[in-house]
Amino acid sequence: MPTRVSGFSLLEILIVMAILAIIGAIGSGIYANYGRGIELNSVAESVSFDLKLAQSKSMVGEGGFLWGLHFVNGSPQQYYEIFSTPTNYADVGKVVVATTTLASSVKFTTPATASSLDIIFNKISGSTTGSSVVITNQSGSKTISVSSVGAITIQ
């Protein structure tokens, strides 16, 4: 009577390992893209929060100044500043309260490269000149818009 040997052949083990490697590669790609999307959403929410903070400080007239954000799309780094000013960002009486540098994977597309953008809110009304800031990374882009009446939205 022949003896029966149980177990897996080398070919069966290699096929299972190949299937697991393919599933792992697909899963890691999906996970990495998900993480980049979360990072982009986080930066957009942070910019929106800081815009609302500057708007509220300007509306109550904190320090007797206008408040705003100064966005810089520089070549080595991209950042924005929260500031108070009697008139505009170039005023000598301007005070920078906080500076936030974007993560290396997130970039401004608006303002354009090597330029800047100021969003300054008016006292009491919180209105401003309508503008938008666009941030992007490998997973997509987000537009933070500020209307002329001061409504701040993320798209």
Salient structural properties:
155 residues, minor pseudopilin epsh fold, 4-stranded antiparallel sheet, 8 strands, 32% helix
Give a structural overview.
This protein has 155 residues and is α+β, with helices and mostly antiparallel strands. The termini are far apart. The longest helix is centred in the first third of the chain and has 50 residues. The strands form 2 sheets. A 4-stranded antiparallel beta sheet has the order 3-2-1-5, covered by helices on one side. It has a 4-stranded antiparallel beta sheet with strand order 4-6-7-8, with helices on one face. The chain has 1 helix and 8 strands. A hairpin with a 2-residue loop joins strand 6 and strand 7. 32% of the residues lie in helices and 33% in strands. The chain has a single domain, classed as minor pseudopilin epsh domain (minor pseudopilin epsh fold, 3-Layer(bab) Sandwich).
Per-chain topology:
Elements: H1 10-59, E1 66-73, E2 78-85, E3 95-101, E4 107-110, E5 115-121, E6 131-137, E7 140-146, E8 152-154
Antiparallel strand pairs: 1-2, 1-5, 2-3, 4-6, 6-7, 7-8
